[in-house]
Structure formats: C-alpha cells, structure tokens
Write a structure and sequence with these properties.
The complex is a heterodimer of chains A (475) and B (93).
Chain A lengths: L8 H20 L3 H25 L5 H21 L5 H25 L15 H28 L13 H19 L5 H19 L7 H23 L2 H25 L3 H6 L7 H5 L13 H10 L2 E6 L1 H5 L3 H13 L3 E6 L9 H8 L7 E3 H4 L8 E5 L8 H4 L18 E6 L20 E5 L2 H15 L2
Parallel strand pairs in A: 1-2, 1-4, 2-3, 4-5, 5-6
Chain B lengths: L2 H20 L6 H12 L3 H9 L4 H29 L8
Helix pairs in contact in B: 2-4, 3-4
Classes of the chains: A alpha/beta (475), B mainly alpha (93).
Organism (chain A): Sphingopyxis panaciterrulae
Subunit structure (chain A): Complex of an alpha and a beta chain; in Rhodospirillum, the alpha chain seems to be made of two subunits.
Subcellular location (chain A): Cell inner membrane
Chain lengths: 475, 93
Amino acid sequence: MHDVAPINPWVALAYLVAGVFFILALRGLSSPASSRRGNRFGMAGMGIAVVTTLVTHELANPIEVIGAIAIGAVIGLVMARKIAMTAMPQLVAAFHSLVGLAAVAVAAAAYLNPGAFGIADEAGQIFTVSRIEMGLGIAIGAITFSGSVIAFLKLNGNMSGAPIILPLRHLINLGTLAAILGLIGYFLTDQSPAVFWTITALSFLIGFLLIIPIGGADMPVVVSMLNSYSGWAAAAMGFTLHNTAMIITGALVGSSGAILSYIMCRAMNRSFISVIAGGFGADDSGGAGGGAKEQRPWKPGSADDAAFLMSQAENVIIVPGYGMAVAQAQHALREMADLLKKEGVNVKYAIHPVAGRMPGHMNVLLAEANVPYDEVFELEDINNEFAQCDVAFVIGANDVTNPAAKTDKSSPIYGMPVLDVEKAKTVLFVKRSMGGVGYAGVDNDVFYMDQTMMLLGDAKKMADDIVKALNGSGH
Amino acid sequence: MDFIAIFSIFVLACFVGYFVVWSVTPALHTPLMSVTNAISSVIIVGALIASAAAGSPVSKWLGLAAVVMASINIFGGFAVTERMLAMYKKKER
C-alpha cells in the first residue's frame, strides 16, 4: 500500500479550501473587530486539512496517530494558557523551532520512505524535482530549528543577549552555505544517505552560526525572519507532497515574516544585511565613554508634581517602552490614565514599532492591561500631535524618543524614526536613574530640556504613586 | 500536478500574502506571528502521511514525532492567538 491517493479532485479541492481559509485568517487581522473571526477561519482550515489527510490515507495504526495529536494538543494548550504576555517572543521562537524540526522530520521520513509519498519510481529512485524540494525543505527546516533555539535561549535569558563573535565568521558562514547548496546540487545525481545527512547536519550548524552573532536588540528582526523561514520550510514540503494547502500557507507565512522583518529593520533604521551580519551592540566602548561627558543640569520631579501637571492638562500622550513592561507597570499605568480621563483629560498612547521585543508586542501588553485599542496609536498616526499636547509621559522608553536620531549625524541611532516628545509643552520622563542609557548607549537631550521633569524611580512604583496622588487630590 | 502548476500557485500565493499582510494593522502584529506559526504547522499533513505509511518503521516514528510537534504548534498557536485577541477591547461608551 504505497501509492498516495491518485489525484482525486475532491481531495485537491479540500486542500485548496483549507488554503483559502488560511488567507481569510490573515485577512481578519486587518482590524481587531474581525480578528477573532479570522482566527476561527484558521482553525477551520487546519481542521479541513487534517481530516482530509486522515480520511484519504489508510492509517496503519489510528490509535498511535490520535495519541500523538492528543499529546501535542495538551502540551500546546497548557503552554498557551500559562505563558505570560511579556514572554510571547520566547514562545513564538519556541514554536518556530518546532515547525522547523517537524519539517526536518517529515523530509527525513519522505527520504527514507519515498514510495509512501509517491515521489519515487519503481526502482526507489527519488524524482529529480523532488530531490531539490526535499533538499531545500530539510535545509530550511534545520536552519529554522537551530536558529530558533538560539533565539529562544537569548530571549529567555538562558544565554547572554550579547553577540558572540567568532573569528572569520563571515567566511565560515558563507562557506557552509555554499557547501549546503553544492551538496543539494550533488544530491540530484546521488541520493545516497551520506549526502542527505550531511546536508541536514550542515544546515543545523549554519542556523546556529547565523544567530549567535546577533545581539539582543536585533531579536525582533530575528524572530520575524525565523517566522519567514518556517513558512518557506512548509512551502518546500508542500512542493514535495504536491499539496496546495501547504504551498499557499508557506507562501503566506514566508511573506508575512519577510514583511515584518522589513518593518522592524525600517523602525530601527538598520539594513537587513547589517542585522544578519550581526555584531550590533558588541562594541560597548561608545556607551561606556558617554559617562565621562560633562554633567548637564536636569530637573527632578515627584509623583505629586506629575499628578498635578497631568490633571491640569487637556491632552496627555503616554509613551510606553519595554522598561514599562519589565517593571509590570502596565496595570498601574492604565489606572493612572483612567483617573486622568475622569478628570476630563484626553489620554492617548503612542507606540513605536520597536517598543516591545517583537512586532506589535507593546499593543498586546497594553491590551492585557485593558487599555482600549482605539486609544493606542502608531508612530506615524500620532507623531504630529505632540506639538499640541500638554504633557508627554514617557515610561520605560528612551532611544525611541531621542531627537538626536533626527539631528545628530554621528549618533548611532541617526535616521531611526522617533517619537517627537520634545515638542510637547511638558515632558515627564520616568527613568530608573540618570546613569543608565538605552540599548544604543547614547545620551538623550530630552532629559536636559527646560520643559522636562525627570521622575526617577521604578516605573511601577512611580505609576502607583501618581495614582495615589491623583486619588488624594481628587474628590 | 506538474511542477509548473504548483509553482504558479506558489508565486500567486506569495503576492496574496504580500498584500494581505500589509493590510494587517500593526497593533495585531504579535497575533499575526502566532497565527502564522499555527498555520505553518499544516506540515502536519506530511507528518500524518509518513506516520500512516507502512514500509519503514523509522519513517513512521519520525512521522509520529512530527505529528506531536506540529500539534503542539497548532493547538498552542491558535489558543494563544485567541487569548491575545480576546484582550483587544474598544473604548466603552
């Protein structure tokens, strides 16, 4: 029993419907209102694909297959329920690694038993086209796996976020990549196990080598890039299996990850190549040297001052950064905003694309704290409103507000789009201490402006104190 | 299906993906990543074929392992997306 269902039009149609449902799933995400319906489309598409496969292939042992699905379901559901929203980037990296490893396993299974997949002739020779697809599939899958494992370890703090720079790494990486491509070419003429497993091993190695030199600050790009790879891996397997659902999905996911990588690169004004080449943040001489600069005067403020200023304001824009999430200040912050709104203050949130640790991360963190999504604005939608706002309240963000990105050509962040907080009548800047600098290791002129008041302390404690002050002064 | 037919589907799907993904609101980029992650686990189809086939026990066990991994992703990915999307609420009033 080794022929795949001969091309049955109903089966092909079912997979096509699954693919269309996946398109609708992504389409739903164009607005939060339609997003949950989109997610249901995704689930339905997956259901159709799985059921179609199960009914068209005679299962050697249904209990094993159902058991395997059940084990995966329990693990997946528990992970989804337990995960903290701040840890989403790690979870996504972990999920990517599983897609990669699953693709490797499927490609290896297809190599060992090509007859079952209908990709070999009578003599057991795998078709030429299938060899290319299989070779690419296992290579991309393996790179996705080992790259995601490193990304996970860095994001989860099991491994230092600092880039690990090997000597001659570009030479080693390019050499390894060339070897993989060369071997895939050779695989066309020789399908012996040695070739296949060498491709696999080298691909695991290159995934590892590619990610270790990339620093923590660039992880949003890396996670998006691995998202893209996991899609291309699925597409390659779709080619091998002639399955439209897999091909459509792979193309969707591949494009999605590529676009997100591009958006993240643009938000940091970094080229994709320079991110991939790695090493950003390895040179800490610039950051350390900043401490020797002359002491400039700055104005300290208290929670009471902040509460008074904001309650008297007409418009307040809150600029949250990842520091806010690390301090778990989002709930206190939302409480503060609620009290201000009660006093008639117009409160909005301004989000920089790299405010979190992955694309859209800050929006999720605010949503979790019950901040309505129609009060949250993206950089390009709100940036011209700072000039009319009375108070810009910066909490846990730094580099994304630095005007040097617009004016100082020598600054490492020059060219990066930033939020124009310096245009607000008053800037309240919550910061742990005056000593620390942001990721980029540059000083921020906003600290020293006349209209800026520095609120030094832990973000959560400061937000709590402002809430107390607002309650005290109020009715 | 011949290679060109499949390749045509692939190229067109890339374009669909390009336009659909640009229309996703930036506020939902994290759920976008988790849901794309869930749907890319449609490779479970390949895993099921491998685990169903007779002939090579190693191939069967690789298939079953892939079924477990893909299932973790499918259930975990859709569930965590659902959990996130449920948090997005409009202003009252």
